[in-house]
Amino acid sequence: MSSKTIMTPVLKFWGFKQHPFDDRVLRGSELELFVDRKTEIRRLQNALSNPLSGVFGAQGAGKSSVLYKLEEWAISESYPVVVTQMSGASENLLYREILAAILQEIKAGKVKVLAKLKLKVDQEIERVQNSIKYTSAVEAAGEAGWKAMLNLTLKAGIKEQEERELAQHTEESALALIKKIAMHKKAPFVVIVDNLERARFLLDDEDAYFRFVTKFSQTIDGMFSDLGVPFVVSLDQIFADRINDNLPGTEEAASFSFGKLVELSVFPPPELYKLIARRLECRKWEGAVEDFVERNAFWALVGATGGHSRRAFAVLREAMELVAERSSDKTIGLEQMRTAIAQCGEKLDEKDLLILQFIEANGARSSSDEDFSKAVGLSRVQRGRRLNELVEKGLLRVEEQSSGKTKKYTYFLVKIDEDG
Ligand SMILES: Nc1ncnc2c1ncn2[C@@H]1O[C@H](COP(=O)(O)OP(=O)(O)O)[C@@H](O)[C@H]1O
Ligand SMILES: [Mg+2]
């Protein structure tokens, strides 16, 4: 593995064979980098008794990685898993893409079906793949594109009769075949549809996207209940926001169809720290995490990216390059982190940074504590608002204490575990 990767200047400088902060979906052996999300995974595991469940969260929050962590678990429990990534070519291909993935797993012998289904796997794979090609071509270039495609295959020597047969699968026929397979399976299997949130970019507007997912969820919920073929999909934050916006009628329809919708929020500071520590460890960093990134710089990273893993990695990569360029010590300091944050188009609020640093150094605080107000400044009201914003972002926790009639709120950080 390592001999195949290019030793870029930044890797050479830092002494890594592989970049610790490459942004990639974790799957298979890469899942060694996976941290946290225990509750979410448990909820997803238990959701598998429903025909349909999902994860939702911002882009880069870790939806795909969680789905693959679920896959790993299901396989370890001896349940085959079929994974499809919505390709993003067209929303009108979804069921065919799912069918194609299921057929591949049948061909590979992982999903097993009863003989009486009389499934001609190779032929069905060809049918569905051809139909995916046609639909993509038609949607990409209109009728002309379809004709061009047809000409091509005709030239390649396929007779028109075969042509028609091969092109037969539609979304309806694909769905029907998926159902038949589910009914004739030898043992339960899981279907994961990653990137379903891509439909949002294919459809004109949010309404259409919402309707698309609602329809999909009702279809799956209606057709696959009690079949032992649970579907798990990824959705973005917008979908969940819409449900919460309480559209009369649609809300119930959508949320009822999902056995469970599991939210993936950003990583709170201790988890982000763990995430960094794990990556450094797996990439054979020899020092401590603090040798790699100073604590103040870490707080700046937390403040700027809000614990959003994809964005945090981008800033860390940039900071590592800045350090390498100046060939200073192999440590990311606050100043380099500030520059990297700016270069990545992120914003660091200096007051937020002060608050986080202060609470880390001095422990839990109420917004009215005197030393706190001296260090941070701002009016009491403004300070209170800031603190609540940090709580909302998941960066601080708050506890309410009432003595007599007065209520006091103390804000604290969950301690960062030095051992990773
Ligand atoms: N639990 C986790 N532990 C470690 N890294 C993670 C975890 N979840 C996500 N990541 C990392 O965060 C980035 C975004 O994750 P991804 O699964 O692609 O998010 P999404 O599908 O929501 O866009 C990837 O670089 C991935 O490696
Ligand atoms: Mg994803």
Key structural traits:
three-stranded antiparallel sheet, 54% helix, P-loop_NTPase, 420 residues, 2 domains, Orc1-like AAA ATPase domain-containing protein, alpha/beta, 8 strands, binds magnesium ion
Instruction: Provide the list of bound ligands, each named once.
Output: adenosine-5'-diphosphate, magnesium ion
What is the alpha-carbon Rg in Å?
26 Å
Number of domains: 2
Oligomeric description of these chains? single chain
**Largest sheet: number of strands, sense, barrel closure:** 5 strands, parallel
Number of helices, counting only DSSP H or I runs of 4 residues or more: 19
Going across the biggest sheet, name each strand in turn. 2-3-4-1-5
Judging from the principal axes of the Cα atoms, what is the shape?
Answer: globular
Whole-number average pLDDT?
A: 88
Q: Determine and state the CATH class of the largest domain.
A: Alpha Beta
> Which percent range fits the helix content?
40-55%
